[in-house]
Amino acid sequence: MRTFLIVLLGRFASLIGSQMTGFAMTLWVWDVAGRATPLAMLAVATLIPRLLMSLFAGVLVDRLNRRLLMVLGTAVSAIATLTMLLLFLGDRLEIWHLYFTGIVTGVFNYMQGLSYTTSISLLMPERHYARASALQSLQVGAALVVAPGAAGVIYAQTGLGSILAIELVMLAIAMVTLCIVRIPQPESPPQSLEAAPHEPIWSQIAFGFRYLQRHAALKALLVFFLVENFVDSACMNVISPMLLARSDNDSAFMGTLYSAFGVGGLLGGALISVWGGPRRRMRGLLASMAVWSLGLVVLAVTSDATLQIGIAVLGGFCMPFSASCTQAIWQSRVEPEVQGRVFASRFLVTQSATPLGAAIAGPLADRFFEPAMQPGGFLAGSLGNIFGVGAGAGMAVQVALFSAVGVGLALGAYQIEQLMAFDREQTVPT
Q1: What is the dihedral of CA 395, 100, 60, 325, to 10 degrees?
Q2: pTM of the predicted model, to two decimals?
Q3: For position 241, which CATH number holds?
Q4: Which range of residues forms the domain containing residue 371?
Q5: Distance CA 178, CA 23 (A)
Q6: ∠ CA 171-27-36, rounded to 5°
Q7: 3-class DSSP state of 240
Q8: Core-most of 42, 147, 257, 376, by most CB within 10 Å?
Q9: In angstroms, rounded to a whole number, what is the distance separating the alpha carbons of residues 226 and 354?
Q10: What is the pLDDT of residues 195-227, one digit of tens each?
């Protein structure tokens, strides 16, 4: 547990730096382009290489030293941040540079995250898995409380360069914590779970898919998240431009809203850390997803700042429940010795629709919903009384539409027998 907490501290520092940079980059890209598409394409540039890397990452994580893989991921992030800082100081930073660094860091950050996730089950007994996931959600919430507000103020006062320099300091802290701990390696898998020594690399890569193929309930969970992630991506990738457009580019209010989300995450993570999470993890997952999606519908409809902040707190509160329940389900049902390959296969399947959702989100907002909700647009007459008209109104319609679909998915999943079986059985139903 001591090792886990030390690594968690380093990841917390890194998270603050990366979230400050991510928030500032959103402001910078919006200032430069003024459209949703470049922001959505940045997400695509980051996600696609991570998906491709997931084919190989599971085999590498199960075979190589996981601590060294985490160190490598941190080092690559530092190099990418330093490169962006030098380009910015030389007044040569362009949006395509962000796409390129997103591709590079996406690969190594995925490897780093998978190494970290698969090491947790080697550091503590199963009864603490949900608490460990809650502590991770707690640090995400704490970072969200600090990072957006601080980034908004610093960006307005000194610009992007200062924030990139802060991220470098935070990455240095993360590197130090990784260098002073020892992270155990998994034991050799049982022969029934291990690939034969002569088995081709592609067969070893396919191990995770073969493992999942044998478990009907896990396959049902994969399909559910595949659909949900597409819907969520098409919605989430226009929320930031929607907020900026509807608030006249008020970065301070946007930072406040994200900080409120972090406060909710802190409260939810703290509760689960003490409580341990719902005993019926699938129900806890679906309920939190339904409330989160419903909150996004309200966020898109309302223009009241106080209500928006309240919705952000509620959404942040729900996220640790979803994350901890999901992670606990997987960690308790997949042997630690093969989690690298199985989790990589899970990531590839469930996230394969996320770049597609991001790719359509920006053009859908810029070319369809936004023009339709301008004065005289063909949707303005029927929806203008609900969402208003003008800048950001079309993106609000898009967010509300996809979020409503998300509510329906979460509630409909209660009728899927294979998903509900997770709450009745201790082992994976086959």
Answers
A1: -20
A2: 0.77
A3: 1.20.1250.20
A4: 2-181+199-423
A5: 26
A6: 120
A7: helix
A8: 147
A9: 8
A10: 444 556 566 667 888 888 888 888 889 999 999
Q: Quick one: which of 114, 108, 96 has its CA closest to 42?
A: 96
Residue 267 in domain: yes
Asked whether residue 14 is assigned to any structural domain, the reply reads: yes
How many whole angstroms separate alpha carbon 223 and alpha carbon 215? 13
Q: What is the pLDDT of residues 257-307, one digit of tens each?
A: 888 888 888 888 788 877 877 888 889 999 999 999 999 999 999 988 899
Q: How far apart are CA 227 and CA 222, in angstroms?
A: 9
DSSP character for 171?
H
- For the chain, the residue count is 430
373-407 pLDDT, tens per residue? Answer: 999 999 998 999 999 999 899 999 999 999 999 99
Q: What is the pLDDT of residues 339-349, one digit of tens each?
A: 777 887 888 88
Beta-carbon contacts of residue 170 (< 8 Å; ≥ 6 apart): 13, 14, 16, 17, 18
Higher pLDDT, 333 or 76: 76
Is the pLDDT confidence value at 188 over 70? no
* Burial call 73-112: b when 16+ CB within 10 Å, e when fewer: bbebbbebbebbbebbeeeebeeeebeebbbbbbbbbbbb
Enter the tokens of residue 251.
């970065």
Specify the DSSP element, H or E, that contains 356.
helix 354-364
Q: How far apart are CA 106 and CA 355, in angstroms?
A: 13
**Model confidence at 63: pLDDT above 90:** no
Q: Judge whether 327 lies within some domain.
A: yes
pLDDT for res 428: 38
Identify whether 172 is part of a domain: yes
Mean pLDDT value across residues 59-76: 84
Question: Percent helix, strand, coil in the chain (nearest 5)?
Answer: 85, 0, 15
Number of domains in the chain: 1
